[in-house]
Amino acid sequence: MEKIPEKIAEKLPLLPDHPGIYLWKNAEDEIIYIGKAKSLKNRVTSYFSSTNKDIKTEHLLKYIADLDYILVPTEQDAFILEANLIKRYKPKYNVLLKDDKRYPFVKITLNEPFPRIIVTRDYVRDGSRYFGPFTDTKSLRMTLRNLEWIFPVRTCSRQIPADRIKYQKACINYQLGKCPAPCIGAISQEEYMQIVKRQMRFLEGHHDEILEEFKTEMNNLSEELKFEEAAKLRDRIQAIEHIQKRQVVYSPDSRNTDVIGFYQEENIAICVVLRIVNGMIINKEDYPLANVEENTPEEILAAFLKLYYSNRDELPDEILLPFEPSELEELNEWLQGIISIPKRGEKSQLVAMAKNNAFHLVEEHKLAHLRKANRTIYPIQELKEKLGLPKLPRKMVCLDISTIQGTDTVASAVFFENGKPKKKSYRHFIIKTLDTQNDYAALQETLTRYLKECEENPEMLPDLFIIDGGKGQLNACLEVLNNSNYPDIPIISLAKRIEEIFLPNNSISITLPRSSSALRLLIAIRDEAHRFAITFHRSRRSRRTLISELEEISGIGEQTKFLLLKELGSVEAIKNASPEKLNSIKGIGPKTAEKIYSYFHPQDSEKG
Fold it and tell me: Which domain of life is it from (predicted)?
């Protein structure tokens, strides 16, 4: 018999023999597990009376400190409430859908007189009709773009009453034929709802029925010599047939079926749902699952079914599963007896296909994880080996100089950690000791000032300095480094012409193949340093040009220059500003505004 925490011991005798949900809490009052029970009294008590416990239960019992519960009328209600509470609280020991809200739905706002079609990630019970979720967002949006022409309904947020015209002018979608403009009374509510109902039937998968209806209408219009309207229907028929070509027929009957595939490897598990409507796969959904380490596949599949179907407005005609989940009898009763576990034939092949999809998704997840973990380690490791560095250059700083015609010389120092830019550690410098262009001296000043900052912030010290330039730039910086407190930090330079790498005290450069991940990383760091320096240089040059032009206007002081610069930002904007615009800037009066305007528009002053 397990030792029972005091708070739980007080509640155990009071537990009712009634269906409900129980919530285990830890010492911090956080919900760590949610379960359902046909009898709360029997189920909760079994945690402490049972001798053969699984690993998950043993771990759970180490942390539970309190218990809460909710009574429900029936066990069927418990299924829905359990799933909703798990989605809300995401307990540590429950199987969870990862990123449960990441997949969008198509929402048709039937609670409005003239329904809209929108894409949303929020499932709200507001009287609207939802289709989805759709895991392939790109394909969904492409389909919806096609539907705009086949079933033109509004997508705007206008409030349109059913009994009167509210707006005088329609938006451009009306001109394009993508909306029938109920806002201006161009279509009745009854006619509009016919389009909406057809659209919903299409999303339900009744493509062939709609095609036949369109073909009949097209033929009738042709007989009535309404060729323009018939041509529009012809285009819609072709659009539907084009969409159908992208869908694959897998079942000869017209039943709506959900095919569930499952695959688990260690702590990675994924469920795939193939949704078949009228014999065609209309959607493939994939759901990575969390907290699966100490659960059996049967428990994980049962948990997924509860989470997946708890908020569905409509159930399919049949659900095909790869194996028996836990609580099969209760699940099947809750899902109205539509669960099937095929062992042979076409249905088993569908389940095998869904499982194969799940298997490949797990493999992709594993490979993506490896690539993510190692994509920067490999080039860093290659750098260490090719350049003979004493340790992995996890922290790298690249210096670059920017100057145009010897003016406004600035420098940049970009910081990369584990192959990724760390922008909060970027620095730029205005070169102060030079009046003429001298890249070597500018680099020496930059490195000196950077190392001085490192004395106050040692985390900025890199494992490798990279200089944008050749052997001369490298030697100039090496001199500074040798005379500093950090002579042991490795330093190299990268020359642009053929991407040569120069090392100190080595007359022969190193040339890595273009396919080298280490070279690609060095080029990326060098290009980022160049971009950062150029951006800073342009901003300084722009501001200097602005101020120099303003200095030509008599009577304009530093404060006025600052206000103009802050508000308008560029010479061009000030030139184009009207006297009224200039006067609207707080701190600039009408006389000053007129003076500035007259300077940039002397011809207007002459006319006056």
Answer: Bacteria
